[in-house]
Amino acid sequence: MAGLRIGTAGIPASTKPQTTPKGIVRLAELGLEHMEIEFVRGVRMSEKTAADIKELAQEQGISLTVHAPYYINLNSKEPEKVEASKERILKSARIGAAAGATSVTFHAAFYHDDDPEQVYQVVKRHMEEMLEELERSRVKIRLSPETTGGPTQFGTLEELIRLGQELPGVYPCVDFAHLYARSLGEFNSYEHFAGALRSIRDNLGPEALQALHIHLSGIEHGPRGEKRHLPLAETELNYRAVLQALADFRVQGYLTCESPILEEDALILKGLYAELDQE
Ligand SMILES: [Zn+2]
Questions:
Q1: How far apart are CA 157 and CA 55, in angstroms?
Q2: Distance, CA 78 to ligand 1 centroid (Å)?
């Protein structure tokens, strides 16, 4: 399953009925190659269903990643909320691994009013504990905290690269739309995107670009970062330059399109990437 595999965040809209197995078949019909299983509102998939999905996805040539629930905050002041957050990530990881997914992403934490360095140490400690738990229970899947879309959320690219340096096996999920929104529109040129990939490669090794977990879609930002995802046609994010940088750095991995018009935009990205990749 090499190359840059492009697909949708969850079940394509044109899938009937809207089930994950039908969605996998639909992606293959559309000529797409990847699905992110969306556990964003809770992990409601059994191990048995996951095992069936693994078989079907292999048969259809569709790779899988997982998005853990939104309701996660490893820096909550309430210990039970931190524990529940870890349990949600671990459950997403277990079910995801059973489905053959390679990576699980999540928005790790909020800063609240804490010093970012202190938040970093808190997130790192909880990440370490989760990695140990996955190791103990022999669950093989990558934990990939995501670059987040607003300044109140932990998850700059620098923080996530540092986590990867200090916790071997952890790599960032790079959401280019979030990086753009978080910067209030500044992070929007080929040089920015190429710089991000260069930094990942130089700090985490070339292998980091050989199975990179990526999110890309249109986005709208306000003065506090991310507002909402948009169709590609309506965004000011220079997604063409993102794809050019991915092609130039020969990035391989999984690109999930989180657009409101899922497969339509995923197909646009795939077509454009194929053009740019040949140049
Ligand atoms: Zn996300």
A1: 34
A2: 23
CA 14 / ligand 1 centre spacing (Å): 22
Per-residue pLDDT of the chain (279 residues; tens, 9 = 90+): 679 999 999 999 999 999 999 999 999 999 999 999 999 999 999 999 999 999 999 999 999 999 999 999 999 999 999 999 999 999 999 999 999 999 999 999 999 999 999 999 999 999 999 999 999 999 999 999 999 999 999 999 999 999 999 999 999 999 999 999 999 999 999 999 999 999 999 999 999 999 999 999 999 999 999 999 999 999 999 999 999 999 999 999 999 999 999 999 999 999 999 999 876
Q: How far is the CA of 279 from the centre of ligand 1 (A)?
A: 31
Domain coordinates in residue numbering, the chain? 4-278
Q: How would CATH label the architecture of 4-278?
A: Alpha-Beta Barrel (3.20)
Gap from CA of 80 to ligand 1 centroid (Å):
23
6 alpha carbon to ligand 1 midpoint, in Å? 16
Q: Please tell me the total number of residues recorded for the chain in this structure.
A: 279
Enter the pTM of the model: 0.96
What b-and-e string marks burial along 174-189, b requiring 16 or more CB atoms within 10 Å of the CB? bbbbbbbbbeeeebbe
DSSP string, 103-142: EEEE---B-TTS-HHHHHHHHHHHHHHHHHHHHHTT---E
CA distance 241 to 192: 9
C-alpha 18/C-alpha 2 separation (Å) is 28
